Amino acid sequence: MNRREFLTAASGLAGYSLMVRMDGVAAGPQSREAIAQQFNVIAPPQPLGRKLAAETHMTLVDLNCEVLVAGGGMAGVCAAVAAARNGAKVVLVQDRSRLGGNSSSEVKMHIVGANCHGGRPGWREGGLIEEFRLDDAVNNPQGSWELWDLLLYDKVKSEPNITLLLDSVLYAAETKDSMIQHVLARCDKTEHIYRIQARLFIDCTGDSRLALEAGAEMRVGREARSEFNESLAFASEDRHTQGSSILFTARDYGKPMPYKPPQWARKVTKDQLRFRPITSWEYGYWWIEWGGQFDTIRDNERIRFQLLAIITGVWNYIKNSGDHPTSANWAMDWIGMLPGKRESRRIVGDHILTQSDLEGKHDEPEDAVAVGGWPMDDHPPSGFDASDQPPFRSIKPPQVYSIPLRSLYSRNVGNLMMAGRNLSATHVAFSSTRVMATCAVAGQAAGTAAAWCVRYGLTPRQIHQDKPRLRELQQALLRDDQTIKRLRNEDPQDLARLANVTASGSHNQSWPKNVINGYVRDLGDEWQNRWGAKLSSEGTWLQLTWDQPQRISRIQITFDTGFHRELTLSSQQSVARGVIRAPQPETVRDYEIVWLFEQLDGLPRSLVKVEGNYQRLNRHSFELVVARMVRILLKATNGDPIGRVYEVRCYA
Fold first, then answer.
1. Which residue ranges form the domains of the chain, and what is each CATH number?
2. Distance of alpha carbon 583 from alpha carbon 133, whole angstroms
């Protein structure tokens, strides 16, 4: 697998789909022809005849990459895309036929995170997960889960640096001197075994399967209160976890829809539901949860059966108990068959996140690379069977909290990283970090860090120890719209930081200089970190001027996409009601970038014209110009009368 097989020239300038690698070379989505060439790598048309002694009917294929990502949920997808966009050759191994994990059409759990369903206005995650959500809202207004699957597939397949192996299970790893040398993954559908060599390995499997095979130190279950002095922990340790859930969807068919449960369905009573109120039934119930008292890996089949027995029993209660007569015309139209797993193994890193970290009782970690903010949301292991107690205990951290790099790499396997629900945390802290938007930003951090390790020939621990490299990594994450608490853009290569910024006008004291103050989000009604002005027929513009002409070939603009509101795909009416499944109205839709060099004729020249934008982060590359002034002309938004810009960056 050489570089020629991964990299293909492509075009395109507008939107986040333009990737600008650290070497300054622009790359766009792969063409269909380029993607087709990859299949000659993963399924060679002329098999080499190599076999493993114990697998005589499977064809052995050797793959070489720089970063191997195991697991294709939101953490794995974001890790793979981040590593690829930062220049690393990536192989992504996913054991299902689709990407997205619990957010996919196989489970249909909506993505939540630091904004706590609107409970923390302004804290919706940026970066890759924001890009994906915005694409989904615009291109999937009907809210189809299968189109969300397709979007994630498109994101991965469009990356020239990623080779995707679907329906492939990672099942072995070879290590030497506490470093992984290669892994084995098998695809029984195509009768291939892949032997994959890499320099960095990222476990995003959720179940920590790669870590298990590599001999990494792990934890399972709940720590004793005394071990980390966590008030929310239990007095004694045990191996209990949170359980798994299966969801369902239902709709009104406009005529009576009788229901007869299978004979093995549970008999559900009103008393069992006293802490689990039924107020609507268009989208199952997360509290149909079970199995944390067992091994959520080994006992998955037992858990699946019991969850289906509970679902059919609950639906029978809704339809036939007489307590919900308005359900007469309703029928289920989908039932998940894949348990949505919350918890299993967690990998131990150089730092274990604890309740105190989430509560802000320690100084901010110097190696912060992502944020979380969901409540410490613990569930009784037996789930539905614990009918005598509420289905959750939710304690909201006072603020969003930082996730350090040290919690994203293994303590005892030198080139193993992790992201998702298996990052290094206690059970109490995990009850917050487990949600998918937090998994996604941890994945972006891990993938970017892995690319940095490849670039400089370092291990993740060495990145942490090398403070200049660590700062460089953090600045790269900020450049890619990853929020890191209390850190601002200090990129020495960003020429915009040296400019004088003016504008045609300002809304609500939103000063033009805000766009170079280094921060890219406001909370509530603040206008401290963005500039805005009412669109006018006389022209609405933002201008950067330098004392001396600057050589510029790349400009990056961060727009407002309404971080104060929810943006997720959900079949639950109470969640979907506040979501705009279209371009977000605040976002600048049409704009033009012009430049001026005073020694010419004094007339501005157009660099970029964009129509139909809906993304937050927009990057533009062009032939190098020498400019003393760059002006951004705002021509239209997606509905709001105020045009808004959070940040402008310029690079040579």
1. 3-12+35-214 (3.50.50.60), 244-341 (no CATH), 495-651 (2.60.120.260)
2. 11
